[in-house]
Design brief:
By secondary structure, this protein is mainly α. Helices cover about 75% and strands about 0% of the residues. Helix 2 packs antiparallel against helix 7. The longest helix is centred in the first third of the chain and has 33 residues.
Length: about 240
Amino acid sequence: PRETLTLLWSLIVSVYCVGGMLGCLCSGYLAAKFGKKKCLLFSDVLLIIAALHGGFSRTAKSFEMILVGRFLEGISAGRRIHMNAHVQYAGEISPKKFRGFINVTSMVFLALGKAVARILGLRELLGSQSLWPMLMASCGLPALVQLLALPFFPESPPYLLMHKGDQEGCKKAIRQLWGEGQHQAEIDDIMKEKATMKNTKILSVLELVKEPAFRWQLYMIVILTATIQLCGINAV
């Protein structure tokens, strides 16, 4: 029946957001517990599994596989585990003078990825009745590239020093990333940040909402985020 098809289509579209919410809630804990690099590798594995579910769903004649794939994509992709961990990792491994530029490029490539996805989704390309499984599986390609390349990169130096207390590992990672030289100033900055964090209480979401000192900052963030959603960019 048409009502059933509408319900299934709505579930396929919205389950991505449900996965995204879960990914956002656990991304901070995973990044602090296992490090940004391992977090990204875990996210790559989820994306590849999601791509396989979407790509083979037509062959298996299973809409449930599409639901599972979309849910896993929501957990790992976009502004969820992958986006949160990627921005932190890219900023922490980049030299100080390029850090701001590197952080901004994440949003540039996010917008570029959306544009490419919309172009590939045209009926003349991969949006046809016979090729849509390839379109759903395309998210696995960049995940596979990163899964193969990322093991050759070191863990984030701030994570090694601040969370693991591994000063030698931090120095080794810095030399691997930035070359030989005097990097004591960067290490001192990380130590200062670690000392500051010891004296700073990490608030939960509920505590943040209840804290009067952050009330106006929270209002501004909510208004800006809502404005982005209402500006018409999704329609474009």
